[in-house]
Specification:
About 30% of the residues lie in helices and about 20% in strands. With about 300 residues, it is of the alpha+beta class. The strands form three sheets. It has a five-stranded antiparallel beta sheet. The chain has a three-stranded antiparallel beta sheet with strand order 1-3-2. The longest helix has 16 residues.
Length: about 300
């Protein structure tokens, strides 16, 4: 008997069958979230022939035979009752993030694997516009490892100030973009709000290697738990909401971003009042606060 060759590594982009892997991922995603798929879904999305789509479905059946069955009356493949996703991209967070991106207008519907879409609404927030030339200059400085001279409007100074900075990373605090850079004026790594950069031009100043930005490269674990002052039923609801295991959720964050995550989660300081307003608490506060230095945002 001829031994069947092993299946390809479906998660590897280096596979010679990467294009088919992408289609298998599509099949997996549609079955997970639409509960069904047919050949026309595959041919329309990828622009391939019906015979090729049939081969893709056959390959998927080899990978996960219990994940789909064919409904002859409807002429469609349905997700099986024992369906288990084959690809990580079929995770719920991926689905919801794509819904969010489509609604926000940053992802075209045709670029998403999502088929049928439920109604979605987003809480509006004021827009923050970044100058494209500023962003291009920062990217160039990072890529070429050179510095830039900027005219920067700090919230701690009345007048704008000229500084030389050496950028090495971007950071998003949940509301706005920052650039992480070595400040030649303060002689330390700091966060700069990109929208507050008024002018920018390249310079030849040499900065320390980004590896010397210890706060950027140091990872800190935050251990969250429900506020113990809440009723048991409320604590259980919070455990479900945050996907806690044994009453705890763990988040790993860069030391340089600790201030922002504590601010967003309402954990900047301990509070003995209104447990309903402080539904989660920081269990390892002493450990985290040992990493929390004066915020270097300018």
């Amino acid at each position: 008997m001829t031994k069947k060759p092993p299946l390809p590594d479906v998660g590897s982009k280096t596979s010679s069958l990467w294009s088919q892997d992408r289609r298998l991922e599509f099949i997996d995603f549609r079955l997970r979230w639409d509960g069904r798929i047919n050949r026309s879904d595959i041919t329309a999305f990828f622009g391939i022939s019906v015979p090729q789509a049939s081969l893709d479905i056959a390959k998927y059946l080899e990978l996960a035979p219990e994940n789909l069955s064919y409904d002859r009356s409807a002429r469609i493949y349905l997700a099986g009752p024992k369906f288990k996703p084959v690809f990580a991209s079929s995770h719920s967070s991926q689905y919801l993030n794509e819904l969010l991106a489509i609604q926000a207008g940053v992802l075209e519907q045709t670029a998403s694997f999502i088929g049928w879409q439920p109604p979605v609404a987003i809480v509006p927030t004021p827009g923050r516009v970044l100058n494209a030339e500023t962003l291009t200059a920062l990217l160039s400085a990072m890529r070429e490892q050179h510095s830039v001279k900027v005219l920067y409007q700090s919230m701690t100074q009345v007048a704008s100030q000229t500084r030389v900075i050496s950028p090495h990373a971007f950071a998003h605090d949940g509301y706005r973009w920052h650039v992480r850079a070595y400040c030649h004026l303060r002689k330390q790594f700091r966060d700069f709000v990109i929208a507050r950069i008024l002018t920018i031009e390249p310079v030849e100043d040499v900065a320390p290697a980004h590896q010397e930005d210890s706060e950027w490269h140091t990872m800190v674990e935050l251990v969250l738990e429900p506020n113990p002052k809440l009723p048991t039923s409320h604590r259980q609801a919070i455990e479900l909401d945050y996907g806690m295991t044994q009453g705890q959720a763990r988040i790993v964050c860069r030391q340089a971003l600790l201030f922002y995550i504590l601010e967003h989660l309402g954990l900047n300081q301990e509070s003995d009042q209104w447990p309903e307003a402080h539904q989660i608490v920081l269990k390892n506060r002493m450990v985290v606060e040992s990493y929390l230095q004066t915020r270097k945002l300018v």
